[in-house]
Amino acid sequence: MKVPYPAGQSAGARPHLGRPMRRIEDVALLTGRGQFGDDVGVKPGTLYAAIVRSPHAHAVLKGIDSARALAAPGVRAVLTGADLAAWSKPFVVGVKAQMEMWALAVDKVRYVGEPVAVVVAESRYLAEDAADLLHADYEQLAPVTGINEAILADAPVLHEAVGSNVVSDRSFRYGDPEAAFAAADRTVELTVRYPRNSCTPMECAVVVADWLSEEEGYDVASNFMGPFSLHTVMALALRVPGHKLRHRTFPDSGGSFGVKHAVFQYAVLMCLASRKAGAPVKWTEDRLEHLVGLTSATNRLSTIRAAVRHDGRITALSYDQFDDCGGYLRAPEPATFYRMHGVLTGAYAIPNLAVRNRVVLTNKTPAGLVRGFGGPQVYIALERLVQRIAVELELDPLDVYRRNFIPADAFPYRAAAGALIDSGNYQRALELMHSEGRLAELYAKRDRARAEGRLYGIGFAAIVEPSISNMGYITTVLPKEARAKAGPKNGAIASATVGIDPLGGINVVIASAPAGQGHRTVCSQVVADVFGVEPDQVAVNVEFDTQKDAWSVAAGNYSSRFAAAVAGTVHLAAVKLRDKLAHIAAAQLGADAQDIVFAGGQVYAAGNPGSSLAFLRMAASPHWAPGLLPEGVAPGMRETAFWTAESLQAPDEQDRVNTSAAYGFAFDVCAVEVDRHTGRIAIDRYVTTHDAGKILNPALADGQIRGAFAQGLGAALMEEFRYGEDGSFQSGTFADYLVPTTCEVPEPQIIHMETPSPFTPLGAKGLGEGNNMSTPPCIANAVADALGVKDVTLPLTPSKVMDLIGADEPPPSKPHAAAAVQAASAAAPAKGGKALAARGEVMLGAPPETVFAVLLDPQALAQVIPGCNALEPAGGNRYRADVTVGVGMIKARYQAEVALSELDPPRSLRLAGSGLSAVGSARGSGIVTLEPADGGTLLRYDYAAEVSGKVAAVGSRMLEGAAKIVLNQLFEQLGKTAANRAAGLPTTAAAAPAPRRGLWQRLLALFGVKR
């Protein structure tokens, strides 16, 4: 139940809550005084870490040779998997399966980017240089990269002790879905995929860890965002009791959106590195590490069916869902499945539900929390299905919504799977969409556009947004017998402390870990209203310290906890302290405590404002004269409050669970126009209607909505982690992993409605995740409407849209290009890795005979190729090459084998090669042709190749761009060398200026990759 307002009153001309107050945080941030992880000073003697990561998706880790790294300047220690057993153990797993995940790989690697060693040195630069010297010996295994492949009986198994890549398989049944489907007038079915994507916060992970001693344990500072249930996971992994793991957060965090929960693995890793090195260790993640190795949203394959009456009324739903959790089931997964479990019926009154959930492991980065986790995966299926019902039954989509929405008089409403949806009026949202959203205008515009032959569509999405997760929801993954054995888990405790200092200033400490949302601002508004003062009289501390602050396992910044739970608990703590002050003031004013009013910086009895006490003086007095406190009032001006929602109980024996304490609502409409020639999608208008209960600060609320909308738009149109068939990661830069900018994000129209929650202290609900749930299906529905298609797959990139439109690509402009590609492809690997092609032509100032001779001369060729450290003959027209390759931020030394074949002097030859390095492998093949032209040679080249591992992660745009640049440089140098030879000049002079940097990978792995 909602907490009643206790004795004592706060009044004023206008409350601060509900007003769009400017953020307190902005002054420091906008003037460069923010204290992010990399800004905070460290202890003298702190060392710096570089992590060595696997370039392979699936391989046996046969051994690590760290001798050269240890001998490098400034290196103090190297931590490997062999060190871990003495000081740690595997992380706990959320299901009963025999799998182990250590802080470092110990036997196998199971995804590209998995940590295999940590090099600790006196500077970050020295550590990274030394990391390049470490050699890990791998025996590559066949990878499995997709759900469909992973579930096959003969698929490679990631964890042999489990015996299968399906590590959890649970079925649920609520009501009588079988009877509902048997009696249905129609059955509508869709198979939908949700892609892997992430959040890309401005600040990557930062960890500073210090092993103190056996008695004191570890001291860690990081930008971890919680949930602090993972503090227990960290302590268990480090084999220390909880009080010997002190975890602190930094004053500021540059965004999280869920992904910084995954910092917990690296907190443990740096603790172990500190213990090995005997000094504090700092690690700052770079962007490539963040994309390739931290975490991602869980990609899902869903088949969803609805039993439907002729009028569109849904009587039953059936979900068959697979979640791809990557190489390990890392805590808190399978949270993405079960956070939404109680509300799988969404905003609809559907009495019958069948669910099957299978958790699958593949050779990809472990999945985890990404803004709205669980919601985007559910609603892309459910909301696409609702549109298909309208299409197949030839109904107005709004009529389908209206007939299925939970009735406004049914709240609190118990959903089929157990969610207790606290409040709402979804029908009112439809009315607001018509009136304020001007829906009729969009319909008219669509009619005009289609009459003109344009592709214009309108889509809708309705979502229920959960907030304040029940700490027991994750146990739904276990059968009731296993839950009974483990003991019940439930609730969502929030805590806050409010104190008054000896000068009357108010101080607040919250158990959260904000990442830019404006928590200090809202908390100051809450407390100012309670005490009748101005917000600038309130100081809010958001730094978190597990050794000093009041907290619980539910603490943290996730699942939209802040407005409803944290701010509400701040209110409760402030009211407790205000009630204490009311008793003190009542004795001084000769009044009853319940009649004391706090307003305008004054304290007075109701009806007698002329006889008042200044708040600052009155609130400070108990510090200076505790002996004058009234009888029954204890000394001390500090109160801590704890709160949890009574409605959050453990799953029952029928697997029903109220997964969250409060449920907001969003109803969106999107109008798009699709360019039939390019496949580009333009959003014409986007309207989002929100019910988040009591709005605490409208400006911050709108900011959260806009941010979630931008992120949801990215998921709909741009963002996807891509992997090769060999498991190589191919989205390691912002050239290939595209995120929306202000140029791509239109301004959404935001409409607010308020139905306060009866279950939270302030009536507030969360809203920061809603549009990440609603925007992807809303845009998908609009595009499906524009194109008249059934199936759409996110992200809706132009190429995918063109496939849906059905456009044919034109043939190659030059016949010889197609033939060369076919020839190169015949010799290049057929699949796996990052597939690349490099083709072009260049004029050389020497005849073909001379150019051909240079290509066959190993000494001349070594001088031509940038980055070639050595080129030694290894048989007829075969060479061993030692080359340094650099692409973007990545540089490595490759040991390569190169072969020249199909020699047709002086007209053509084939180059084929393969190479291995610490950052992955490369192989490729291509044709070089030479034609006489204008007294010189027209050289044409056409290569097909693959790269894997870290190099592949830089993405096709950077790789192909580098290929063109480097190949041009190569052949220009070849032309100069050949021209010198034809003129009788020394060829070494021409080659001397060439930098000794990497290209032979371009020649052997793509014939064209270099900085």
TrEMBL record:
Presence of keyword Oxidoreductase: yes
Any Pfam family hit: MoCoBD_2
Keywords annotated in UniProt: Molybdenum, Oxidoreductase
SMART domains: Ald_Xan_dh_C
Domain called Aldehyde oxidase/xanthine dehydrogenase a/b hammerhead: residue spans: 31-142
InterPro entries found in the cross-reference section: Ald_Oxase/Xan_DH_a/b (IPR000674), Ald_Oxase/Xan_DH_a/b_sf (IPR036856), Ald_Oxase/xanthine_DH-like (IPR016208), AldOxase/xan_DH_MoCoBD1 (IPR008274), AldOxase/xan_DH_MoCoBD2 (IPR046867), AldOxase/xan_DH_Mopterin-bd_sf (IPR037165), CO_DH_gsu (IPR010419), START-like_dom_sf (IPR023393)
Domain of life: Bacteria
PANTHER family linked: ALDEHYDE OXIDASE 1-RELATED, XANTHINE DEHYDROGENASE
Protein name as annotated: Molybdopterin-dependent oxidoreductase
Organism: Telluria mixta
